[in-house]
Amino acid sequence: MKVKSYLLSLTFGLLLFSIPAFSQGTDLMSSYEDYAELEREVVYLHLNKSTYIKGESIGIKAYVLDKASKLLSTETSNLYCTISDLNNSIIKKKLLMVNNGIAINDFTIDSLFTSGEYKITAYTNWMKNFDEKNYFSQNIRIIDPEVEKEAKQLKATSEIDAQFLPEGGHLVANVETIIGAVIKDNFGFGIPNLECEVKDSENNQVTSFKLNQFGLGQFSLTPQTGKAYKVSFKLDEKEYTFNITAAETRGIGLRVNQQKDNTFVTLKTNTTTLSSLQNQVYTIALHNGNVLKEFNFRFNDELEIVKAISNSDLFPGINIITVLDANNTPLLERMLFNYEGVNLITSGQPFVKKKGDSLLVSLPYKSLNVEEFNNFSISVMPSNTRAYNHHENISSSILLQPYVRGYIENSHYYFQSVTPKKQYELDVLLRTQGWSSYDWETIFNDPPDYDYDFENGISYVANFTNNNQQQLIIYPTLNSPLEIIELQPGEMAFEKQEFFPISDEKIEIGAIDNKGKPTTPNIALNFSPKRIPDFKLASSYTALRPRESGFSGMNNYNDFENGWRKIEKLDEVILTGKRKYTEVEKIKNSTIGKVQFFDDKNKQKWQSVGRYLSTRGFVVLENKAGGNGFEIYRRNPATFKGTKSADNIPVVYIDDIILHQDLGLLRDMRLDEIDYIEINHSGVGAGMRGGGGVIKIKTNPMSSYEQPTKKVEHKSFDVPLKFDVTKRFYIPKYTSYESNFFNEYGIIDWFSNVSTDIDGVLNLKLYNNQVTNLKLFIEGVSNDGTFISEVKELKINE
């Protein structure tokens, strides 16, 4: 993707002089074009919680987007996900399959974990080409009740980190400057609502300011030559004083002020500096990591220049304003966020209906374009939860976090129910961030190289030890059909790309020799990639530790510990008491789809496989003239009608053997030959071909049914790296839904793959556990660049 260049069209307001527009040259623009030529992608993980109890699962929904367009990426199919401890030792790692920018999976918190903090990271191979923070990294908290008897809260020490950052990066003597203030505790969390004083070297108060809820604030200062300044405040009855970096005697100050129609860029200097600036050409570069706009200016004999940039010339989202001298040396920088053109939508009034032991929840998204693909993930928690405290949501993770150098506390705040106050507070935040994540030394001298590819599955090269084979038969897997390869005389190798092995699948290859007889192939396979690649995290980016706090009115885990043990004992009674029931439950609980076992009654009711499937959301056409006499495709769940297309034909297995195109075997199959059928309408876990859902048929071993395919004269190859299969997410059962433990650490449900209906309504079905106050943590995207990040509270009437 070649970056487009523009000469910025400006409206000059409050101009103290006028200069003709001209171009300094092509060095800046051409260097930026080279730097931005390779397209980027970014990833966000929506986790179902932030604090977990050992034995639970970490639910993961991955969104991979193109960084420039903010649309779901179609380039990469391979996403790597790791969990490491605070010593950066990897505890678990997986390869996830990305389909249309979406991947779903989970990690079980098993015996490999104990109480403590862990880091979960997600990245693609392509991201290794860039120094920018395009990957995802977040800290999570795990509690092992056998080790940790009390819920601990991070307690800040007297070690305080206070930074006072002049706008643009420089504090110049006798130049009025806005200074951003950020005061943090030893864990990196802002200290809220501090009242601070600014004093000079004679201890005279110059001004005062107050921090907001995130420990951020700002104040105006015109430093006098020869004077020093400091900030003082009181915290926990203790006085603190921090010096402000001394003002420079020479330099330029920057101020950026965004108003209704224009953004005003003010450049100021002092009399000591002015003579050296006159007749020098300076450039203001405006970019967003993808496109650069530039214009030039001179100081002449004025100490202050004010330029008005029409807000229509700003990029939607982040804008990075940099002032460079005639040698393209960056002098000043300031980030600005433009909410115009950023499509953040929220749902309307929710509708809740009780039906049996379920709650039917409908969330209308009236402004959502339902003609575009949309996808959501939702964590449903008790309203008083302490277990969901993520600093990022999908909006802040994609629109803001990749462009700053540090980790932003509660960055989701600026993208939920946006108000003018939040817009102002985000501007205060960006004043404290200093330089962006884009390094100008890298832009000019070290643009990224194309060293790492976009990955689409696994590839392998097959090398022959001798060529006595005329044909090779590659047997089908879930995501690959049967393939026959005709070999040419003397051909000693071939390459296979875009192979998507899952679970315990192997590559099975048979051969036909030159005499037309089946034979075992004489080949060896070399795979790529063979392992999950290492990934270096940006040194300037350190995710904040999760804050843990105790139960309300309690000092220990007694309720939780006893309750958890009771649940384990209850499970043991069920499992040992009813052996047949255990087999059925084991199968049902290990799958994503719904499982139907067939007894005499329902065998008589439906009789054939085709009739049964026609009652389960599929259109079944039997005895059709021509073809194989049997066709099946998924109905539209909204209209209960359907037209056959390539993306709504289900994947069908019989006894773990995949049927790719020939479904004629199902035409005459009777239910008395079947043990059970599993139907997964979502297709989650089925990889690239799961759009029409997955049907798995398990035959009765006592029946006379014969296997559909017999493999002979073949060789099996283990695949060193395979995609992890998405399994049915387990929601824990609790002994009490009224306890402090459940209300603070429990989870009600996790929806990892939901979309709206044709009317833009998101429909959920929850188990009604009599909890009357719920919170829905909703993340989602529509493929027109729309972001959905909201917290919805539901009150269930008894």
UniProtKB/TrEMBL annotation:
Leader sequence residues: 1-23
Keywords associated with the record: Signal
Record protein name field: TonB-dependent receptor plug domain-containing protein
Species name: Psychroserpens algicola
